């Protein structure tokens, strides 16, 4: 499981002309990639790591501040660009596997107390954000 975590001032997901998810205060935008072997252990580990990661201003965590998270599924985090000019997506879990893991990840964050907004799994989305810092971290479990 991979995540790109960005500290943001605000962020939103738009489909067509409709905003489907938004955080309007400092928080985290989480782009989440799932591979074939990811399951409950990876979900719990990564959710806790992100919620408690001290990357907010003043060396606080999102947990310390009750900061909101916007989570967006991003299979392209598992792109293999080692050969040629066309990425391979073989390492990304297919939708029947990654969709439930994405839902479990969001649910685990909520169990930890995180206010969570979600992109729409599998949709063609516009993700808008204002990075804060900028702070962008790649995590993998």
Structural features, described:
It is a single chain. The chain has 141 residues and is an alpha/beta fold. It has a single domain (2-140), classed as D-tyrosyl-tRNA(Tyr) deacylase (D-tyrosyl-trna(Tyr) Deacylase, Chain: A, 3-Layer(bba) Sandwich). It is built from 3 helices and 6 strands, in the order βββααβαββ. Strands 1, 2, 3, 4, 5 and 6 form a 6-stranded mixed sheet that branches. α1 crosses α3 (95-111). The longest helix is centred in the C-terminal third of the chain and has 17 residues, at 95-111. The protein is globular. The N and C termini lie close together (6 Å). The model has no long low-confidence stretch (mean pLDDT 97).
């Amino acid at each position: 499981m991979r995540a790109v975590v960005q500290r943001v001032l605000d962020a939103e997901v738009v489909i067509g002309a409709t905003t489907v998810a938004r955080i309007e205060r400092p928080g985290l935008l989480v782009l989440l990639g799932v591979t074939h072997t990811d399951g409950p252990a990876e979900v719990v580990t990564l959710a806790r790591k992100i919620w408690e990661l001290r990357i907010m201003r003043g060396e606080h965590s999102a947990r310390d501040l009750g900061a909101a998270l916007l989570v967006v599924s991003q299979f392209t985090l598992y792109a293999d660009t080692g050969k040629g000019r066309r990425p391979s997506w073989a390492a990304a879990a297919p939708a029947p596997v990654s969709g439930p893991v994405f839902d479990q990840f969001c649910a685990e964050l909520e169990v930890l107390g995180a206010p969570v907004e979600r992109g729409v799994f599998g949709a063609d989305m516009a993700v808008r954000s204002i990075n804060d810092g900028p702070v962008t971290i790649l995590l993998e479990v």
